[in-house]
Amino acid sequence: MALFKRRIKTGTTEEMSFVEHLDVLRGHLFKSAIGVAAGAIVMAVYNKFIVQRILMGPTHSDFWTYRTLCELGHKWGFGNKLCMAEIQLKMQSNVVSGQFDTYFNVILIGGFIVAFPYIFWQFWRFTKPALKENELRNTRGVIFWVSMLFFLGVLFGYFIIAPYTISFFANFKLDSNIENIWTIGSYFTAMAQIILGAGLAFQLPLAMYFLAKIGVVSATYLRRVRKYAILIIVIVASIITPPDILSTVVASAPLILLYEISIVLCVRVENREKLREKEWQ
User: Do residues 130 and 3 lie in contact, with contact meaning Cβ atoms separated by under 8 Å?
Assistant: First the structure.
């Protein structure tokens, strides 16, 4: 298997045993863990700022997203349609180690986010020797693009999806006598899922590119299911956003754009394959 053949400095390849392969993988995993630990230390040093000003930000009515959307709504003549309802929310810790457990989850997940480029670099160093020269040429800049898309997704999740989601669930009540009192664990878990989920969702174009390279998906297939994909994106966006068209567009447009970019990348892959076949003929 090509995965067990690794290029050495002379440019040739040598076969590795399964145990040797696992040993190399263990080394990269260990270095990745060190990267996460280093990021976690940074998170621990600035934990009060990160928790109070960043993670708890969407629970405050003066959060940047709320203020900006409200100002834009008045500026563009929409009145208060883009203004979020005031968030009336209380939180509690209902287990002995609740806040302590949340503290460690925050610094570990934060450490992973900070160290993501280094983690992916270690993953790339592990897989790179198994690739051929032409495959390496097609993956130039992959670390930059993967990292950039990940951080763009994290920012999108934090500034767009998280505020809409928190505002929606904080103000959703079955009855006026029922008060929303969240546990800190459930809140930070939701924030982590939103932020990391958005970061991974923004990898869609690159994921589709590599799947097209190995023939799993095609531009034709993505075009065929486009309407269903857009429908799902719009439905999810409309659920977590206020009931107006502009808010739904703000939340769904970037994901739809990523889907369209995925189709363009698949077309490029298919055109290259056709050109290569002509050259062989």
Answer: yes
Which pair of tokens denotes residue 20? 């040797």
Does the pLDDT value for residue 3 go beyond 50?
no
Compute φ and ψ for 278, nearest 5 degrees: -65, -40
Cα-based torsion angle of the residue sequence 5, 8, 11, 16 in order, rounded to the nearest 10 degrees: -20
Based on the number of CB atoms within 10 Å of its own CB, is 75 exposed (0-12), middle (13-18) or buried (19 or more)?
exposed
**pLDDT for 259-271, tens place per residue?**
999 999 999 888 8
Is the pLDDT reported for residue 234 higher than 80?
yes
DSSP character string of 150-201: HHHHHHHIIIIIHHHHHHHHHH--SSTT---EEEHHHHHHHHHHHHHHHHHH
Whether this prediction's pTM lies above 0.85 is answered by no
- Between the alpha carbon of residue 228 and those of residues 209, 215, 224, 256, 259, the distances in Å are 20, 22, 9, 11, 12
- Phi and psi of 91, rounded to 5°? -125, 155
Please answer whether residues 106 and 55 qualify as being in contact, where contact means their C-beta atoms are separated by less than 8 angstroms.
Answer: yes
Q: Tokens 């006026």: give the residue.
A: 176
* pLDDT of the residue at 50: 94
Rounded distance between C-alpha atoms, residue 201 and residue 152, angstroms: 10
CA 34/CA 120 separation, integer angstroms = 13
Whose CA is closest to 85, among 65, 63, 61? 61
Cα separation of 118 and 116, whole Å?
A: 5
